[in-house]
Amino acid sequence: MSEETVEKTSQRVQSSLRDLGIIARELLKGSRSEEALMSSAKQFAQHEGLIESCTLNVSKLEVISQQLALHEECMEQALSNVEDLEWKLNRIINRTAGAPASHPGQVTDTPKAHPIPRDTPLEHAASEEAN
């Protein structure tokens, strides 16, 4: 063989070895990428259960919030009814005492003759339960 042929063959071998090195590096990168993707997929699967649980909890909180809003509305209505009953009772008490009754929100110069006592049996029982 001639020197020229040996040199060309040597260059081709070196080029082939470089190409093999590049291919080997790319294969390693690919396998590492696959490992990273598998790890990410496992972590995502673990988090998926937590996300579903959180979504369920948020739904439950929305229902509770709606229920609280309804309870608040009922309590406001009940308070309005209590104030109306208080006004009616004061009107009846003041009629028997001879003093004019005023509706809530109506300003009068005449003091109420007999205000309803605040320590009613129902309030007394509620305060005992609280203690």
Structure, described:
This protein is mainly α and 131 residues long. The protein is built from 2 helices and no strands. The longest helix is centred in the middle third of the chain and has 95 residues.
Annotation keywords:
2 helices; 131 residues; mainly alpha; rod-shaped; single chain
Overview in brief:
80% of the residues lie in helices and 0% in strands. The chain has helices spanning 3-97, 121-130.
Gyration radius, to the nearest Å? 43 Å
Question: Helix- and strand-based class?
Answer: mainly alpha
The residue ranges in which pLDDT falls below 50 over 5 or more consecutive positions are 109-114
Q: How many β-strands, per DSSP? A: 0
Shape: rod-shaped
Mean pLDDT: 79
β-strand amount:
under 5%
End-to-end separation in angstroms reads 111 Å
Q: Helix count?
A: 2
The SSE order reads: HH
Q: Quick one: biggest sheet?
A: none
Portion in helices: over 70%
